[in-house]
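Let us practice reading a record.
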Amino acid sequence: MATSIPHRVTNLLAGRRGIIIVLILVGTALYLLSERWETPRSAVATGQLAGGLQDGRLLVQVWMPTNRVVYGERTIVWVSFENRAAEPISGLHFIDVQFPGLVEVGRCWQDHAPACPGERPSDTPVTPLPTMLAGRGLVVVSAELSPAARSGRYAPVIVVGWRTDDSGPHRNAISCRPIELTSVWHERFLFLVRHLHVAVKDVALPLVLVLVAYGLQQLSSEHAERNQVWQSFLGQSLADAQKYYMPIVSRVRRFQRRFPQATNGSLEAREECFYSLLSFLRQLRFMIDGIGSLQFKNRQGEIVAGLAWSRLRNEVECHFPFLELERVHRAMEPGEDFATFLEHFTQEQTERVQPFATLRQAFDAWLVSTTSPMGVLVPLIEILTIVMTVEINRPFEIWYGERDTFPKEDLETAGEALKEIPDTEELRAVLAKYVEAESGL
C-alpha cells in the first residue's frame, strides 16, 4: 500500500530535515523573543484603481483606498461617472452591485448601491445616483464596506445602465481587481516572515555548514524524490488536459478555420463561428469552475495564456450583454455539439430562446463592424491556442523522451499583429520573453 501524504510529511520532519528545521526554529525564536511585539501595518499605503470601463461617451471608474482590508476595519468604495460628450446621458442607474466577502455598513447604501455623493460618505447626506448626467458632467458616489470573511481574495462586479438620445439603452459590467481580506494574525505571520532574514544572520555560519553537509549527502536521494513527485502529477495533468484544455483548443480552432469564410458572407460559416465562440466561452467557464484557472508546468506560459484570455474576454464583454451571456452559459452544457446548440433557437419557451437570439444579433453586428472589428480576436485566439498546445504537451516530454518543436515563427507573427490592438503592451512584452526563453532551450 502506498504511503499516505501525512505519513510521508511526518517522516520527513522527523528524519532527514528534522535537524535543519529545529535549528531554524530555535534561531528564529531567540531573535523574536528579543523584539518588541507590535501589530504590523499593511504594505499598501496608497489608493488604487480597482476597475473601470469606457463605453462610448461614458467613463465609469471604481476606486478603493487599498487592495487589502483587515477584518474588523472599514473601507470606502467610490464610483465615478464621467460624460465625455457634450450631449447629456439619461437613465443612469446601478443594475447590480456585488462585493463578495464584504458587507455594506453605514448609512450610504440604497438598494444595495452607493448613495452618498462626494468623497467622504460620513460628511454628506444620502443622495441616490442621479439619473441624468449633463454633457461633460462628472458625478461621484461612495459608501463604506467591511469584511465578512477573515481571509480570501474576492473580485467585485458592478453592472450599470444608461441611455443616450442617439443610440438608445446601454448596459455594461465592471470586473474589478481582486480585494484581499486578511486578519491581524495573518499580518503577524507576515511580520515573522519579514524578520526571518534578520534572525538568520545570527546563526548564519553554523546553519550554512549544516546545510552544505546535509545537501551534499542527500543530493541524489532528493533528486530521485522530486522525480517521483513529478511523475505523480502526470496523471492529473493528463486528466485536466482531456477534460478542460483539449476541448477548449478544439472549439477555438474551429473558429479559426471558419472565420475567414464567415467574414466573406457564408451563412453556414457564420453559424459555426457563433457556435464555436460560445462553446469556447462555455468551456472556459467550465474549466474555471472546475480547477480555478489555467494550470501549466511553465509559469511564463500561464501568464501569456492568462493575459491573452483576459484581453479576449474584454472584447467579448464589450459586444455581448453581460447578463445575456450569463444566461447562455447557464443554458449550455460543456462539450455541447453543434446540433444540440441549434435546438436552443427552436425551443418553445421564449425566455430560453431570447438570450441566444440577443447574442446572435450582437455577434452579427460585431462581425460586420468597422469601428470595432471582430478580427482583433484572431491574433489573441492564435496566441492562446498555440501556448495551450505547447503547455498541454510539456508534462509528457519525460514520457516521450523528446521535446516538440517550439512554434517560434507563429507566435512572433501573432505578436506582430497585436501591435494593431490597443491595450496589449503587457501581453506583447510577456510574449516576447516567453518566446525568447523557449527558443533558447
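A brief commentary: The CA atoms of residues 247 and 335 lie 7 Å apart.
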